[in-house]
Amino acid sequence: MKNNLFHLQDSQKLFKEIFFAGTKDAVKTSLKIFKIMIPVSLLMAVLNYVGIINKLSIFLQPAANLLGLGGRSILVLLSGYLVNTYSAIALMISLDLSLREMSILSSMVLLSHTLPIELSIQKKAGGNVWLLLFIRVGASILTGFLLALILPGGNEAFSSGAQMLSSEAISLADVLKRWLLDNITVVKIFIINIVLNVSFKFLIEFHLIDKFCGWLKHIMFVFGLAKETALYWLVANVIGLIYGAGILITANESNALNQEDIRKLNISICSMHSLIQETANFLPLGVGVPVLVVPRFITAVGSVWAYNLIMSVRGSAKAVTVGDK
After folding, report:
1. pLDDT tens per residue, range 180-228
2. With CB atoms 3.0 to 4.6 Å apart as the test, which of 40, 123, 163, 285 could cross-link to 90 if both were Cys?
3. pTM score, whole prediction
4. What is the signed CA dihedral for 293, 297, 300, 301, rounded to 10 degrees?
5. How many CB atoms lie within 10 A of CB 141?
């Protein structure tokens, strides 16, 4: 009886440690996110109010037309490409976009975001920066074109918080009130981060990560990768490139993987990483999971197999050339 009681107390203590540690990490991560999202969304609400967004939209409209989007949508793409997904989400919350536009933009941003930081990390992890940049931006633009053709048209707005109204029709105080209501999304993101971080701590504590890696080794061939890359692929897709940078860079510098496997791993994870968290962060916008996940999966698989095919053809051509000599 006493042993059972002690076991129960230990379990409760362990659960508390996992919960508190996971929540603490979630708070830190969320604060970093909110430091970007809140100022950006507030700035955009004010710029929208004074009419600057209207002028930028007109200027950028020709480029946006190629993707079937409004001119202001380009601002979302630039923010996502150069800053991160959270600044892009902040802009989508602040601007008067239809669900169709947000679906296209969300998929494009998830394929290609935080480029300055993530490409520098992958360079240190053994990736070819120019190849990875080509894959990410190319896949993003191609996906935008395809989704513009596939998704049905619609002008229903996600949010009324940043409607293009003149200062005579609406006061700045009203704009700020609507901005506060729109930013309820940050609460949803905060809750999602707590759930994800606590779950990851649980998996680590009970050594379930090792089991997952054991299972993943048997399906790595689907992604065109070697079995040895399973752990690093899992790290990239659970905690992302930035938070998993140390592990990925160490794998390259310690020669834990051969250089060819490192290159393929970088190609795979450049377009598909932090799969759960980044996908979850876009769900409060109302975007469907298939739109957020399928293009990334296709790009991750297709790019590695295309690389394998090119390397195979090059190897065959080189062998023929040597044989002729």
Report:
1. 776 676 787 788 778 877 887 787 777 787 777 888 888 999 999 999 9
2. 40
3. 0.77
4. 180
5. 16
Q: Which of 259, 245, 260, 265 is nearest to 121 (CA)?
A: 245
Per-residue pLDDT, 161: 37
Q: Is 69 helix (H, G, I), strand (E, B) or coil?
A: coil
CA-nearest of 121, 134, 41, 139 to 88 is 41
Which residues have C-beta within 8 Å of that of residue 171, sequence separation ≥ 6? Answer: none
- Give the torsion sign (CA, 104, 109, 296, 310): positive
Distance CA 55, CA 34 (A): 27
Q: At what angle do helices 230-243 and 275-282 cross, to 10 degrees?
A: 50
CA distance linking residue 41 with residue 285, whole number of Å? 14
Q: How many Å apart are CA 126 and CA 91, to the nearest integer?
A: 33
